[in-house]
Amino acid sequence: MNISDSAHASGPSARPKAATLEFREATKRYPGQDEPAVNELSLTVPAGEICVLVGPSGCGKTTAMRMVNRMTQITAGDILLDGQSVRERRPAELRRGIGYAIQQVGLFPHLSVADNIGTVPRLLGWDRERIRARVDELLELVSLDAHETRDRFPGQLSGGQRQRVGVARALAVDPPLMLMDEPFGAIDPINRERLQNEFLRLQREIRKTVVFVTHDIDEAIKIGDRIAIMQRGGHLAQYAPPAELLMYPANPFVEDFVGSDRALKRLALQRVRDVDLWKAPLVRVGEPVAEARAKLSDSEVPFPLLVDGDRRPLGWLSERALAGERVTEELRSKPEPLLELDDVLRDALSDLLAEEAQYGPVVDERGAVRGVLSIEILSHALKTDPEHVPSGADAP
Amino acid sequence: MSTLLAQVEIRDRTEASCVSDNGFCPDWIVDNLDRYVNPFFQHVLLTVVALAIGFAIAFTLAVIAYRRRWLIGPVTQVTGVLYTVPSIAAFFLLLPITGRGFLTATIALVAYSLLIIFRNVLTGLDNVPGETKDAGRGMGLTPRQLLWRVELPLALPEILAGLRIAATTTVGLATLAFFAGAGGLGERIFDQITFKSNVVVAGGLAVLLAAVLDGLILLFQRAVTPWTRAVGAR
Amino acid sequence: MDEGGGRAVNDFVDAIGFIFSERDSPAGGTRVGGLGEIWELMWPHLKLSGASLGIACAIAIPLGLWLGHRGRGGFLAINASNVGRAVPSLALIAFFMAYIGVGFTNLTLALVLLALPPVLTNTYTGVRQVDRDAVDSARGMGMTGPQIVRRVELPLALPLIFGGIRTSAVNVVATATIAPLAGVVTLGDPIINVNTYGDEGRLAAAIVVALLAVATEVALGTAQRAVTPRGLKVNRREALT
Prior knowledge:
The structure holds three protein chains of three kinds.
Chain A: E1 21-28, E2 38-45, E3 50-54, H1 61-68, E4 76-81, E5 84-85, H2 91-96, E6 98-101, H3 113-117, H4 119-123, H5 128-141, H6 146-149, H7 159-170, E7 177-181, H8 189-206, E8 209-214, H9 217-223, E9 226-231, E10 235-240, H10 242-247, H11 252-258, H12 262-266, E11 282-283, H13 289-298, E12 305-307, E13 313-317, E14 331-333, E15 339-340, H14 345-354, E16 359-363, E17 369-374, H15 375-382
Chain B: H1 2-7, H2 13-20, H3 26-32, H4 34-67, H5 72-84, H6 87-98, H7 102-126, H8 130-138, H9 143-174, H10 185-191, H11 196-224
Helix pairs in contact in B: 4-7, 4-9, 4-10, 4-11, 5-7, 6-7, 7-9, 8-9, 9-11, 10-11
Chain C: H1 2-20, E1 22-24, E2 31-33, H2 34-70, H3 74-86, H4 89-99, H5 104-128, H6 132-140, H7 145-175, H8 189-192, H9 194-227, H10 230-233
Antiparallel strand pairs in C: 1-2
Helix pairs in contact in C: 1-2, 1-9, 2-5, 2-7, 3-5, 4-5, 5-7, 6-7, 7-9
């Protein structure tokens, strides 16, 4: 197995690094228990896709994931990684080629962030320089300042930072497969949303095969390319892309688990970047009022949005700002909620409702305004024909 | 008092009177410091050798028992008995077998330290968080790599704490080593047990030795576990 | 080697003999040995140990309870043991002999000092590790300070306190062995004054002292288990009904 140097992709076809994973009637029985923990699970995860294992507690989703890297021994059946049975590989060697990220992260407290991330590379004998470069690259990839973070100890990091380092560590040798067990479970909801978005952005770039375990159906729908819903007793209830799951649930259990507000759940499938945004009437302080008014009439947004030199939003302007010759900084309200291109529509809707706003500026990675999202646009999206609903991680 | 006078070296009148009054005599101490040098080094040697051997044995037992849990009970019982038997009794119980001298004293001192070190190594290893071990195994560390690169480093604070306790107690017990014919500072104390100056110097040196060993191990611990001091999340 | 081994066995057999049968002292002039002698030596040993331990507990337990309850003086309570460990028992006794004098009372004082630290430290930490929630609810129920100590903290700290008593007891029994140096005749006499009792007497005393120490440890260990509240043994939560 080749371990590459780089995490960046120049395009999906340049990444032959993702593996295919196949569960073939994989079963796990614990001695002394009637029901197996995982019951003849069969499914295939195509290369580069995120397969989410989801279900109520006790359904065997974590057990199934742990069977892939043999942290849990397979009782019957098989699991094939790129066509080769995992049972034929030596466990330690197998695991070094699979990224492993768990809920409590499990960073080594006695090692710096850099040494944590560099653990498997060191095991594989990479030289010091190569490891150092890779660590910096990975830290940037998970949006952490490499210079500031690399020498810290896990005890000095916040929960969210630890999670990111955990993901970076799992990606260290660019493994073709990632196993993630509720990696964002222990994070507060606000940061969890951010981490999910960043993970999806990351996945768009590096396109790994991922098995992702969660108990949260909303997270599953947001993240998964394909979702495997499991029932108590280790049974697979349905394995399908999110849209199919929502529209054609296979049985009452799935229907119940997915929840009755399927329409709203569909909002989790589209992102802000997927819909047509209103044009934002952007004005700067000192601009001629006539120009400002022209932009305003050109847009469906009733108030002008004040921005700074970098197009970052400062607030919605009141009438008084347009009273004189030039625009002044008379705000009627702050710009929040600020929405991101990668936000799913459901999160955008709840942000708008939380601020009791009808619309919010949409900004890109640098914080510059790209448009305005309104409740109107969202209710229109709700009525959209389900045939055209895209899946979670696709880029336009 | 006259026997005391006959035994000690007297330099001058003031020193003589101080000694005969059995006061605390700095002059006498300075003049006779060389009497304590050899016993001191015997004491150091005895302590360090006993600690090294005791640590080697107890550490090995603990690492083995960590994976084979059924060993913990029996080892704890045995080392527990060794710990309970007073060292002075141990010296004489060993006498018929190993005779008088350094060996007997060392065996008894080693036996005493086993329980403390064994327990602390085991506790340190058991206290490693489960998720850290899970993550380590999941990443592909073999059990041996996990032990040496993750579990033992994380157990170090506890292990060294046990070593510190063993060190100070061993210094204390080594003062009785002269009963086994191994010399040490205790012999000096015993020789002139009612002479204040003597008791203070010999006893003081023992306490000093214990404190220095304790401090050295503590410094070592600070040096090798930098992560325990780096606190404060952002 | 066989010869050496054989000799060792002989020595032990002789020592056992000493315990059970009287004989003439090698130094002449008196009879030594036998169960009566052993008891005559053991009784002062027990008296000395018991008195010292008792006084030490009478001081250290209330002090430890109070400090632990208030949360003060932790530095003192915890480092008392560290300091105590560093002072060799022989040095302590010699110090007392040189500065205060010999005899039962003075020696008892010295042993009290020896026994204090473990009991104090363990009592303090025993109280500190009591579930804070339990103490909180007790306070909320209207218990006064002393009541909280008596009804909540003390029972829950008892196992650790007993652990400290255990440690001190073994230390005291061991140190009482060298009491003859200070003029108090205990089981250590045959060891210190070997000429009177002979080699077999010395070995016999060593055996008896060892057995006594182990017996003390076992007895107090049983007592410790007996005072561990059933709830704690099953391992957990509410101590208040």
